[in-house]
Amino acid sequence: MASTTSGDALPSGGRIFTSFPDIFFIPEFVFGGLVWILVASAKVDPANPLGWVMFVSIFCFIMTTLWFFIFLCGKNQSSIWPALDAGYHFVAVVFFLSASVDLAYVTYGIGELYKSLSGPSFVPVAPVLIPLPAVQNIDEYLKIYRLYISAVVMSYVATLLYFLHAIFSAIRWKRS
């Protein structure tokens, strides 16, 4: 007689590399880590919104690593783990979405500043309500702007990956 146990709800060991949605762990590492690297490689200035972006990217990277190793070692076989899995990924989605919006806003401000400083004549720009980084020359603004554009793209991709993982984890939780 076949029975369904709570241990069948979540994969463990090597099965996490082939099960859905757990296959999203690796891309979440990659894109979340890239956000962390790209923001940290530029000046983390202004500290307030970019500090939140750094916190979110580091927090989610560490928690996803911890989550991955818990799944890999098979310590996720209790009946509470499907709910915890869905809950963690929904929190990660909210965090990454808020960080993505903050990062996009800062990137927009740096882009507007670069356009106003590099144009042939002074072009008034919309006021940006955050202090922008003080750099030595205008080419540094372009470098920071390009790094932040890349970080914004990676941040939204990480948000999408966490969102998909959260949705399919919630479906798996409801089935268990």
From TrEMBL:
GO terms for biological process: myelination. Its main location: membrane. It is found in: Membrane. Residues 16-174 form the MARVEL domain. One of its GO terms (cellular component) is membrane. Keywords: Lipoprotein, Membrane, Transmembrane, Transmembrane helix. The chain crosses the membrane at residues 23-44, 50-74, 86-108, 147-171. It is a multi-pass membrane protein. The keyword Lipoprotein applies. One of its GO terms (molecular function) is structural constituent of myelin sheath. InterPro entries: MAL, Marvel, MARVEL-CKLF_proteins. Belongs to the MAL family. This is Myelin and lymphocyte protein. It comes from Oreochromis niloticus.
